[in-house]
Amino acid sequence: MAEFQVAVADPDAGATYQFDVDGQTANRFIGRELGDEVDAGAVGLDGYSVELTGGSDNAGRPMRADVSGSSLSKLLLTDGVGFNPSVEGERKRVTVRGSEISEETRQINAKITERGDASIDELLGDDEE
Questions:
Q1: N vs C: which end of the chain shows fewer Cβ within 10 Å?
Q2: What's the rounded Cα separation, in Å, for the pair 115 and 48?
Q3: Contact between residue 46 and residue 58 where contact means Cβ atoms under 8 Å apart
């Protein structure tokens, strides 16, 4: 059974919310690719929609949108996700994971694209009276 940690970013508020997802709820994410929009009801944000922006597997290998599938790939990188060069022109072979979410994925990054009627604080029970 799949277990994920989903980090949902709220670009308007500048905040990030972390959710642990497992069981049937986690199965809603399997097979989706980076860039897909998903109903955020899976993480408790009913009425909201999120876009999948990134993630990593249990070994910390990042997901790259330009690698198809969910398997591991060894790429020769000059910059971008998975490698930050320390000198100009540096290249390095790095193992990365494809853009499809699978059982091996442990963290999923997403950002809110559509808002629901209720605020996030109301949905999470963080309202102060």
A1: C
A2: 5
A3: no
- Which helix or strand (DSSP H or E) is residue 89 part of? none
Type and span of the H or E element at 123 = helix 120-124
Q: Which residue has the tokens 């000059």?
A: 78
Q: Over the stretch 32-53, which tens digit does the pLDDT of each residue have?
A: 999 999 999 888 898 999 999 9
Q: Does residue 26 register a pLDDT over 90?
A: no
* pLDDT digits 0-9 by tens, 53-105: 999 999 999 999 999 999 999 999 999 999 999 999 999 999 999 999 999 99
CA nearest neighbour of 56 among 96, 27, 20, 16: 96
C-alpha 110: how far from chain center: 5
**H/E element, 120:** helix 120-124
Dihedrals φ, ψ of 58, to 5°? -70, -20
Please give the model's pTM, rounded to 2 decimal places: 0.87
